Amino acid sequence: MVSSSRPSIGTERKVVTELPGPKSRALHDRRKAVVSAGLSTGFPVYIERGEGAMLLDVDGNLLLDLGSGIAVTSIGHAVPEVIEAVSQQVADFTHTCFMVAPYEEYVAVCEELAALTPGTHAKASALFNSGSEAVENAIKVARLATGRQAVVVFDHAYHGRTNLTMALTAKNMPYKEHFGPFAPEVYRVPMSYPFRDGLSGPEAAARAIAEIESQVGAHNVAALLIEPIQGEGGFIVPADGFLAALSAWTTANGVVFIADEIQAGFCRTGSWFAIEHDGVIPDLVTTAKGLAGGMPLAAVTGRADLMNAVHEGGLGGTYGGNPVAAAAALATIRTMRDRDLPARARAIGETLAARLNALAGEVSIIGDVRGRGAMMAIELVNPGTTEPNAAAAKSIVNYCNQQGVIALACGTFGNVIRLLPPLVITDAQLEDGLNVLADAVHAAH
Ligand SMILES: *Cc1c(COP(=O)(O)O)cnc(C)c1O
Q1: Do residues 279 and 242 lie in contact, with contact meaning Cβ atoms separated by under 8 Å?
Q2: How many domains does the chain have?
Q3: pLDDT mean by block of 10 residues, the chain; 445 residues
Q4: For residue 37, what are the domain limits?
Q5: Does ligand 1 come within 6 angstroms of the Cβ of 51?
Q6: What contacts 355, CB < 8 A, 6 or more positions away?
Q7: 158 CB within 6 A, ligand 1
Q8: Alpha helices of 35-128 — where are they, by DSSP H?
Q9: Residues 381, 345: one domain?
Q10: Which pTM does this prediction carry?
Q11: Does residue 263's CB lie within 6 angstroms of at least one atom of ligand 1?
């Protein structure tokens, strides 16, 4: 098998050329001739191999990955269990289309999703290729099951880039600019954003609910869609009680509560799903990113009465629940369970919180440190204010990149640095990455 026969790429960051190096620059020139300019790449180093938390580029630089390809490779790169499961499945068969000739792997993934997602009620799932597609299908199910049309979403939300999900996403640039018209019957209400609104969870929920009731009417609302911790929008953790109050309101009004766990789910925050922290049992859950160890797979999972309300043939797609991706998901979930990665995410979170809070005490450009488990962020501000400081975020990311550390920015205002390390990162690697980040923050200060 490929994995065991090759020597390790190494476990320690090593920069041997300027970054990006000459081979990466040559590839980037080739790319410019044929790849749409609409695709951005923050740090154009071209990757040859990965292992654990490390990525080897084409110039021989060994990079430390603090982004996991946006919370996807949570179990690390080149995990032996996934390599084996995928290789075996590719050899067996790569595709039949589940709607043409079904296979066990699809069913087994749905069994895992039923067991792992919050709540012990009867559940059913449908599998798709991308997070956006899962969100779209959750809305389809909610509309059909309720016979209503309106969908409520929140400020700073990110739900994807397809036509319906662009409408659900808050930020204009770069996601929506000139891509309209957008899908109708989408209503945006204020998020709980403790750093900026100072409201308690119940107060922020009351504000949102008052807007829904006065501007939409509860009886028109099919679904309330929310990320338990917002991802692209800036790692915004709502105040305690916000999600619980919204959930109670949806239950009282026959509205489907959809938790978009695409970024925060699958062990990232220290539990299998982020919403477990809030004690909320969603009606539907969307998952993707961390689910399949880097293979494209997404799911809608939830109340069987809702999922089964759909007429036969109403859900599906050519590739949804592809057998190779499903085999990868089964190996990924097994790995998360065997290695108790929720516990590892909590331990990483303790290290991150301690270091980032200490750093915030040393510089005046960090306005807020927030997140949960291995999903933590710093929000950069102009000293002495809460004004967003996107320039600082940019310079910190650039500094990290130059040192061979992959770090990501996010946020409606582009002023948040988010940390999403693979959960298998070693203590030494994490320490190394945080040292570079601390240097970067001091340099930006
Ligand atoms: C990434 C993301 C999506 C979209 O997933 P894609 O696979 O990129 O379509 C939706 N919701 C959340 C919360 C995400 O982080």
Answers
A1: no
A2: 2
A3: 76 98 98 97 96 98 98 98 98 98 98 98 98 98 98 98 98 98 98 98 98 98 99 98 98 99 98 98 98 98 98 98 98 98 98 98 98 98 97 98 98 98 98 98 96
A4: 22-78+340-444
A5: no
A6: 434, 438
A7: yes
A8: 68-71, 80-92, 104-116
A9: yes
A10: 0.98
A11: yes
